Every structure is written in C-alpha cells, then in structure tokens.
Amino acid sequence: MENIKGKVVAITGASSGMGKAIAIALAKNGAKVVLGARRTAELQQVIEEIKCEGGEATFSQIDVKNKADLTRLVNTAVKQYRKLDVIVNNAGISQLSRIDELDIKGWEEMIDINLKGVLYGMAAAIPIFKQQQSGHIVNIISTSGIKILPTQGVYAGTKNAIRTIAEAFRQESDGNIRITGISPGFVKTDFANNIKNAEMKTAIQKGMEQIAINPLAIANAAIYAISQPEDVEIGDIVIRPSKQN
C-alpha cells in the first residue's frame, strides 16, 4: 500500500455507496482524496469521517452532466495538493425499462451521466496527466453489458460504450496514463432509489437484499489497481456476488 500513500485522487459520485467507500478506503491508506457529488451535506459528512480517522480530504460540489464542474473538481485537486494522480469516474444512474416503452428522458439521463459524465471526467484530467507525464483513470462500470438482459438495453449500452472508449484510449496511450475499468455486480448501495420503473426498482432492491456485497469490495478492487507500480496497468476487474448469475 506504499504506492497509495500521498497520491491525490479525485472521485465523482463520492457522497454515498461505492464512491464513498472508495474515498474512505483510499484515505485510510494515505491518499489525499478530492470528492465530487451534488449533495454537499453528505459530502461534508464523508469529509468529516475521513478527517476523524486522520485522513486528508476536500470536496467540490459537482454535477457530472456539466463539463465545467469536472474541470473545477480536478482544478481543486491541483490547487490544494499541487497534482492529480488518479480520477475515479464513479457517478452513474440506471433507468431500467423495455426499449419499446420509450423512456427517452431516462435514456438521455443515462447517456448524460454514465457516458458523457465519464468522458467529461477524462477530458478534465487528461491535460493534467499529460503535463505531469503520469496519471490513472479508473472507471466504475457494471456487469451490465457483459451479460445483456431485457430492460437493461440502454443502460448496458452506456456501460459498453465506456469499455470501448477505454480500450481505444489504452491503445492510444504511450503508457504514461493508465486506464482501469471496474465492473461491479449487485452492491449494497442506494443505487436503486433513482429507478423510476416501480417493478424494476422492486426487483433490483430484492436482488440487493438477497445477494448484494459490501461496497468495500469495490473499494478494495480500486486500491489494488491504483497501488500497482507505474509500469503495471490493471485493465478490467469484474467483481460480483458469488451467487449472482
């Protein structure tokens, strides 16, 4: 874990769930974390928890749908800590429905957050990484898309788009900027709360109650990827409950 100590890590969607778990775990291992999310009260609680444990953290209120907010997040890191080592693009949303139900608003929301939000995070961080000649992009994706299921078409499409973009970036990179994708299955978070389709919301919540794993498992995967030596790149990690189909 010596490779984690002193690293500056920006994290989106850091006010709860996997983002919060990643932030706390990294801070415990000596990273300086810069948290971004829309809910400032929750962000402040995470910051206080980290500082009570002796960690270093700050935050910026952001909405990943706004490109300028991601720029402000990474600039907060550079201004406070004089560098940025890692960006964790964690913010995401799911609206599950049959395609012929035409939830166009839900499609646009997923594209704006799951796809464009990640691209905005990458676009904000890459110029800094190029200037430093080092950096690491960690995208939190999903097992959705690895296995295609009804009602998950557009959601899975946004996730598979990130996989495609990341692989292209990996091949384009000279090795100074690494890229990792972590694809979680069912995890104990409030992720289902935003699902508008009542039937799908109930189904997802039931699955979470029965088999979901602790978000710390995802945090540990992030730590594993980030702690590698500079000449080692962890490409893709799939992490799911052992009972998940």
Describe the protein:
This protein has helices at residues 17-28, 40-52, 67-81, 104-132, 153-172, 198-211, 216-226, and strands spanning 8-12, 32-37, 56-61, 86-89, 135-140, 177-184, 236-239. The chain is α/β, with parallel strands linked by helices and 245 residues long. The model has no long low-confidence stretch (mean pLDDT 94).
Assign the structural class, choosing from mainly alpha, mainly beta, alpha/beta, alpha+beta, or little secondary structure. Answer: alpha/beta
Reported for the largest beta sheet, the result is: 7 strands, parallel
- Count up the helices: 7
Number of strands: 7
Strand content: 15-25%
Indicate the mean pLDDT.
Answer: 94
Rg estimate, integer Å? 17 Å
Shape: globular
Distance between the termini: 33 Å
Order of helices and strands: EHEHEHEHEHEHHE
Poorly predicted runs are: none
**Fraction of helical residues:** 40-55%
Search tags:
globular, single chain, 245 residues, seven-stranded parallel beta sheet, alpha/beta
